[in-house]
Write the structure tokens for this entry.
Amino acid sequence: MKQRLLIIGGGMAGVKLVEELVATCPAHFAITLVGEEARPGYNRVLLSALLARDVSEADIRLKDASWYAAQGVTLITGDAVTSVDVTAQTAVVASGRKLTFDRVVFATGSSPIRLPLPGSDLPGVIAFRDLEDVSALERAAADGQRIAVIGGGLLGIEAAYGLAKRGADVSLIHVMDSLMERQLDGPAAAILKRAIERKGVKVLLAKSSRAITGGAKVEALEFNDGTALACDMVVFAVGIRPNMALAKAAGVAVNRGIVVDDALQAAYRGVYALGECAEHQGHVYGLVEPAYQQAKVLAAHLAGAPAAYGGTLLATNLKVSGVPVFSAGDFMGGEGTEAIVASDPRQGFYKKLVLKGGALVGVVLIGDADDALWYLDLMRRGVDVTALRRSLVFGPAYVPAAVLAALAA
């Protein structure tokens, strides 16, 4: 008889786990996947591309409802789990239906952070997190509204770019003095800023928001330096917070996220968590790659195979407002490190490699990220790159074949 497996959360982590289980042990579990949103899971990473009309809604869909049915998976959408009893092994959804399980996985993701500013409850203040938010932003851009996006990280930049591409009057506000400060150093951030401004986005750095003002709707965003920006809409893109309240109410141990071990198991036997809601060895990853790696490990564990999640070397590898961007590891450098830099700011090109003890420990690429995965592989394997130090910055195309073969061995 199949064990009953309940996956709470129909987003990217939950869907990836279903895919891995179907591929690994299709006969082990009777799977129920419960999602809060009315639609089956979709790729949130591509929401900004959808806003910019670079992809269609069909392109971001992960799986059709028919796929789940074909795999024997019970899919519940638009009916969020409201409570879990891990002792009785039951869960209740918003409609009142009771679900039973033998094992349960929290894949509840995260929620966007809304700054507690005066006026943040005015009409015209939203976060950028789901398809409904994309629809609201599309309407605002079509109406020619002046839009202030707060947050100079990846999400804020992508939201601003998508809105500018739609023809909106967009200002990007960031509290720090450089963009994407967690992923880029100063020179790389400066190149990115110029590239974004060429896309029609006004960038305001070192601006701390004080209040959102208006009567019936948003009229302006005020800053702590006494200045203000007239606008019709404010978009929060300042980060995410793990959704762990459901697990906490069930008595599952939480800290910054739902605390799990190397098997992604929580304090209760048969209770697991993965993705943006999970905390592993003190780390809460708000990115897709760690969630997918965790799904693979958890599926193997549930199938009875030896598997352990050892953490993820974080890397950013994407196009930000059409500009290739990659960073990984200790790209800022520190004591005992040295940097190799190639740069042409006028052409929007920047490459920085950080070495320590003969190994590559950090990388930043702007404008050309074709060799990103090669550098990442060298970092993850801890390869001694001393033999190719002179050619390293130029990429594998300039490394002798014999040296490349030795590195791959």
In short: Residues 358 and 384 are 5 Å apart (CA to CA).
